[in-house]
Amino acid sequence: DPVQTKTPLTMRRSPLLLLLLQLLLLAVVSNGYKPVIIVHGIFDGPKQFENISAFITKAHPGTSVKVIDLYDDLASLKPLWKQVQGFRKAAEFIMRKAPNGTHLLCFSQGGLICRALLSMIPNHNVNTFVSLSSPLAGQYGDTDYMKSIFPGCMKKIVYKICYRRSGPKVSICDYWNDPHHRSLYLQSNNFLPILNGEKPHKHMEEWRENFLHIKKLVLIGGPDDGVITPWQSSHFGFYDSNENVVEMKNQEFFRNDTFGLKTLEARGDLSVCVQSGVKHTHWHSNLTVFMNCIEKWLT
Ligand SMILES: *[C@@H]1O[C@H](CO)[C@@H](O)[C@H](O)[C@H]1NC(C)=O
Ligand SMILES: *[C@@H]1O[C@H](CO)[C@@H](O)[C@H](O)[C@H]1NC(C)=O
Ligand SMILES: *[C@@H]1O[C@H](CO)[C@@H](O)[C@H](O)[C@H]1NC(C)=O
Ligand SMILES: *[C@@H]1O[C@H](CO)[C@@H](O)[C@H](O)[C@H]1NC(C)=O
């Protein structure tokens, strides 16, 4: 078998070369940069993260960047708990192979999937969680995305579809947060209010503890996003019943520390990065955003 004889032959010929190769491999493996796991957003997939993957490996050579290739494009409309199951398996697989820890970078809808992962995976090893323009406190706004999913539908009536008792639901319903129908939101939505602890459940303490295993939470967003509405949702701000934005620190889930946000803040482990001039689909391909808000946390 030619393949089997090849290795010993090389070894006999140049043990020094082999040693050098081994040292080189070792250097690459133990460069100290933790693998970065990326979770994409709605209507996109790994392809959209080629630029940011390149930014990461240029800034931190040798970093292993894994964009999870699941629920891409149209499949991203599947209900979020379903998606969480798939992403959880993939993320746990990567974590097991990264004994020194990982980082998690999640875009848009992916940020909510990642919050679920960090709450549910007991021994996750995520150091930094970067949430890139994600509707963390929900979404309430007419955007092009909404129009393509609910044609001819205004934000005022989306709740009728999203908060009804039965029937197929799209992922957006899992974070549709209509400030004019708060009690219906709490009653019918079984994703965001559960993550936020706005709807008490038996895993709250455990999920909070798991979430707090992260060492740093980085929230990125900005006023020119155009999709996330209100844009402050990327920083856990949201509308009150008059559609005035209430900032994170005045949100009940913050004050009650229902899922650990207040603790992270008190620990000094919450970094908020506001960037103007960035449209929603450009966040992950903008080098300035990467350098200002992301690079230093991915070591
Ligand atoms: C983990 O860190 C140790 C100590 O810094 C290092 O020797 C080892 O190679 C690292 N392992 C991986 C898989 O990066
Ligand atoms: C990546 O960057 C190139 C060059 O700046 C740009 O043309 C391309 O649209 C970017 N890709 C994505 C997915 O944004
Ligand atoms: C916050 O705590 C108050 C007082 O205990 C309680 O009435 C309220 O429902 C809590 N809200 C959330 C979101 O946990
Ligand atoms: C990139 O981000 C910077 C802010 O960090 C912004 O000023 C600029 O307009 C952005 N460019 C694009 C093409 O999104």
From TrEMBL:
Keyword Signal (UniProt): yes
UniProt signal peptide: 1-32
First-tier enzyme category under EC: hydrolase
Catalytic activity line of the entry: S-hexadecanoyl-N-acetylcysteamine + H2O = N-acetylcysteamine + hexadecanoate + H(+)
A GO molecular-function annotation: palmitoyl hydrolase activity
Record keywords, A-Z: Glycoprotein, Hydrolase, Lysosome, Signal
GO cellular component labels: lysosome
EC assignment: 3.1.2.2
Subcellular location: Lysosome
InterPro entries: AB_hydrolase_fold
Family as reported in the entry's similarity comment: Belongs to the palmitoyl-protein thioesterase family.
Physiological role: Catalyzes the cleavage of thioester bonds from S-palmitoyl-CoA or S-palmitoyl-N-acetylcysteamine (unbranched structures) but does not have activity against palmitoylcysteine or palmitoylated proteins, branched structures or bulky head groups. Conversely, hydrolyzes both long and short chain fatty acyl-CoA substrate.
Name of the featured protein: palmitoyl-CoA hydrolase
Lineage: Eukaryota, Metazoa, Chordata, Craniata, Vertebrata
